[in-house]
Specification:
The chain is of the alpha+beta class and 157 residues long. Helix content is 31%, strand content 22%. The strands form two sheets. The chain has a six-stranded antiparallel sheet, with no helix packed on it.
């Protein structure tokens, strides 16, 4: 095994140190350029360059609402409408063992009924859902187009 020769003169030592410093500087520049290229790629790939154009205050308010409000997710399989799963924030571990008082299921019609604290009622059928909200001019009926997109009856685009 060969032992690396150590420079003995001051000029040789200085040159050796400068060479190592230039090599480390080139590595630093190379990896910095890779990181910068990745950040630029991610900036455009994530669409951050169009964030101002697509700004929507409604989405921002929903995001803020998620910080302090919680949602209960009601999941019902169309093949087995009697099997309903109600979970806090959609978490499979935080499932209600018994349906809460605000939820009722009518086996005769196959409709699930959710009653809100303000007196509003949402009735969910297999093919549609209706919402009766206090202060609303009319009840709203939600259906799906053939392609699966939802719409409100009477307000189709």
């Amino acid at each position: 095994m060969a032992i690396a020769e150590t420079p003995t003169s001051l000029d040789a030592v200085t040159e050796h140190v400068h060479r190592a410093a230039r090599k480390n500087f080139r590595r630093f520049v190379f990896f910095s350029a890779i990181c910068l290229a990745y950040l630029i790629f991610a900036f455009y790939n994530l669409g951050l360059n169009k964030a101002v154009e697509s700004w929507n205050p409604e989405r921002a308010s929903l995001f803020l609402l998620d910080m302090y409000a919680h949602k209960d997710h009601i999941t019902r399989n169309a093949r087995e409408p009697d099997k309903v799963q109600i979970a806090l924030e959609g978490d499979f571990r935080s499932v209600y063992k018994e349906p809460p008082a605000w939820y009722a299921f009518d086996t005769a019609t196959g409709a699930a009924r959710v009653t809100f604290e303000n007196g509003g009622v949402m009735t969910i059928f297999a093919e549609r859902a209706t919402v009766e909200w206090p202060g609303a001019a009319q009840p709203y009926e939600f259906r799906k187009y053939d392609n699966g997109k939802p719409y409100v009856v009477g307000f189709e685009a």
